[in-house]
Amino acid sequence: PTGCPMGRPAEDSVPAAAPELFTWEFATDPYPAYAWLREHSPVHRTTLPSGVEAWLVTRYADARQALADTRLSKNPAHHTGSAHAKGRTGIPGERKAELMTHLLNIDPPDHTRLRRLVAKAFTPRRVAAFAPRVQELTDRLIDTFVAEGEADLIHDFAFPLPIYAICELLGVPAEDQDDFRDWAGMMIRHGGGPRGGVARSVKKMRSYLAELIHRKRENPGDDLISDLIRTSDHGEHLTENEAAAMAFILLFAGFETTVNLIGNGTYALLRNPGERERLQRSLAAGETGLLATGLEELLRYDGPVELATWRYATEPVTLGGQEIAPGDPVLVVLAAADRDPERFRDPDTLDLARIDNQHVGYGHGIHYCLGAPLARLEGRTALATLLRRLPDLRLAVEPDDLRWRGGLIMRGLRTLPVRFTPR
Ligand code: HEM
Prior knowledge:
GO terms for molecular function: heme binding; iron ion binding; monooxygenase activity; oxidoreductase activity, acting on paired donors, with incorporation or reduction of molecular oxygen. By secondary structure, the protein is of the alpha+beta class. The protein is 46% helix and 9% strand. It has helices at residues 24-28, 31-40, 60-68, 110-121, 124-129, 131-143, 153-158, 160-170, 177-190, 196-218, 224-230, 240-271, 273-284, 289-302, 334-337, 372-389, and strands spanning 43-47, 53-57, 72-73, 150-152, 232-233, 236-237, 311-313, 317-319, 322-324, 329-332, 394-395, 417-419. The strands form 4 sheets. It has a 5-stranded mixed β-sheet with strand order 1-2-10-7-3. A 3-stranded antiparallel β-sheet has the order 4-12-11. The two termini are 36 Å apart. Bound molecules: protoporphyrin IX containing FE. The site of protoporphyrin IX containing FE has 27 residues, from helix 12 and helix 16.
């Protein structure tokens, strides 16, 4: 691959001509290609691997405009080329009607109503109260490999933590959580198309959630699903179908993202030993400030969501001087916007203390990530605990031997083999 996968793209790694996108090299290190696009074709028409034509938006200012522009709809019905558009939000099976009512596929006023209802149940206070449990889950997972001296941090840690966390928050009983782990594993390994095992896993998860919602309605508990059912806003409730779609999107939006936040974040720290030592020293001194700014910086520097989910022009829209026709899909490249030198000083440098850091890693506007407080809690707990319990954590392979998933929406490692002194 050209350039250094996680560091400053060398000057000469920024391609001279239009880069080829969606190749293996691109999946490993898309940043030189994004630098070229920002500079030469900031609103860039491209053909996606699925054959769909779409616009890629790579500059920070254009990205913020696009994310908040009400003329860009989230509803796939606005896509003119929809006959061959598959897996638009990256959610397998989403074209099934009952999955269409989730937040990432709808516009106001429906979006406003549903988001208000779910926000009443999924509150920052509920997340804060969950902190001790996230710490326990984190420690329990580290306990499973701490004596080995080696681990695959994706498989053994980053992958199970968010799935157990969200299951507990939703109220999935402990004895059923491993089923979720299996279904989620199938989706993350084979994400993308609604085919075979993935489709079966989505189906099982969906029918499990529908049944769970039914049970919780009869017998509510102190969990998010019970709150979703109970919650009302000006006399309005979620229907059972809406509650099921909501539980599913919380699981789906909150799972692979957080896996990759922990995976990419740990990897970036391992590749930037100065910053990692700085964080370790600050944690050892009992400070939390650098952990907080550092997590935001890790999101900006190599965040889990490479491209925001799809948007479609409902009328002619001019973006970065480029006219976009009604029906055209627009993909906001968060990973490119967050390295825009027009907005961030030394954008290719990891600076955990960066303060002027209004990144778009969680999106922007009305679809801004609803789960950000939970993601922050999990991310901070996971990284701080790893560094504390495995202080000499190091990569067990050469960076060039690591493989990235190369999906369209998400950016994340397949495996992250590490070594440390067994304890
Ligand atoms: C929306 C990123 C974790 C739930 C979004 C969006 C982004 C994002 C970029 C906006 C997409 C768009 O505008 O097209 C992330 C990142 C995470 C993370 C980087 C982890 C580091 C979570 C978690 C949950 C969650 C843990 C819930 C448990 C949601 C939901 C939406 C959303 C429900 C849709 C909100 C709406 O459309 O109103 N997230 N997310 N996310 N996220 Fe997250």
